[in-house]
Write a structure and sequence with these properties.
This protein is an alpha+beta fold. It is about 25% helix and about 30% strand. Helix 1 packs parallel to helix 4.
Length: about 220
C-alpha cells in the first residue's frame, strides 16, 4: 500500500463511546468549497467539490510523489496523486454527505479527480452526481466529512457552500453544529448505536457543517 493511501484511509480515531468521540481529533486539515448544480426541472445534477489542504500534508504529498526530486510535482506526478486519492476515498463515499428528509442519498463515484498546487497547498477537485433522480422537494442536506475523524474538511465561510440554479421557493441555510451540544443531544442515540453496531458508528456526521435546502413540494 502506498504511504499516502495509508494516511488517507487510516481509521485512527474510531470512537468508542461518547467520551472517545469527544477526544478524537484530526491530523489533516482542508478548506472546502462545494457547489450544488440544479436544473430548471429542480433536479440536483452535480456536486462540485474543491479541497485546499494544509501546508504540512501538502508537503508530505510532494515528498511522496516527487519522483525526480525537483521539489515540485509535474503534470504526470499530479495525475498519480489524483488517482491514489480517488482510489483511497472510494470506501468513504469521497467524504460526501447528502440526506433527503433525514435519509441518505446514494451518490455515484466521481469519474476522476484533479490534483494541483496553489503555492504551498494541494488542491483537489472533483464532480459527483446522485445515483438516482434527486428533486428539490422537502429538506435536503449537503456536507463533507471524514467518518474516521482523521481529516478535518470544513467550510470557513458560508459563501463556500453555493447553489447554482436554486428555485425561488427554496430556502438556503448553512448549519454549523456546536460539538458539545451535538454530543448532548445525541448521547442516548450514540450510546445505543455503539452497542448495537460497535465499530460501525458514524459519529462525525453530527458535527459536520452542511448546506440545507428547504423547498416547497413541486406540482
Amino acid at each position: 500500500m502506498h504511504r499516502l493511501t495509508h494516511i488517507l484511509v487510516l481509521a485512527v480515531a474510531m470512537a468508542i463511546g461518547v467520551s472517545t468521540a469527544a477526544k478524537a481529533h484530526p491530523h489533516i486539515w482542508a478548506e472546502a468549497r462545494l457547489e450544488v448544480g440544479v436544473s430548471p426541472e429542480r433536479e440536483v445534477k452535480w456536486l462540485r467539490h474543491v479541497w485546499r489542504f494544509d501546508e504540512l500534508f501538502s508537503s508530505t504529498v510532494i515528498f511522496e510523489f516527487d519522483t525526480n526530486r525537483d521539489l515540485q510535482l509535474s503534470a504526470e506526478e499530479l495525475e498519480v496523486v489524483a488517482s491514489v486519492i480517488h482510489e483511497s476515498l472510494a470506501e468513504f463515499d469521497y467524504f460526501q454527505m447528502v440526506n433527503r428528509d433525514g435519509k441518505r442519498v446514494e451518490m455515484l463515484a466521481p469519474d476522476h479527480m484533479i490534483a494541483n498546487f496553489e503555492g504551498d497547498h494541494l488542491i483537489v477537485a472533483f464532480e459527483s452526481r446522485p445515483a438516482e433522480t434527486l428533486t428539490l422537494d422537502g429538506k435536503i442536506d449537503f456536507g463533507v466529512y471524514d467518518p474516521t475523524f482523521f481529516t478535518a474538511i470544513d467550510f470557513y465561510e458560508d459563501e463556500m457552500l453555493m447553489v447554482a440554479g436554486m428555485p425561488d421557493d427554496c430556502r438556503r441555510e448553512v448549519i454549523r453544529p456546536d460539538p458539545f451540544e451535538a454530543l448532548q443531544q445525541n448521547q442516548e442515540t450514540l450510546t445505543e448505536a455503539f452497542f448495537n453496531e460497535p465499530g460501525g458508528v458514524d459519529y462525525s456526521s453530527i458535527f459536520a457543517t452542511r448546506l440545507q435546502l428547504n423547498c416547497q413540494a413541486s406540482g
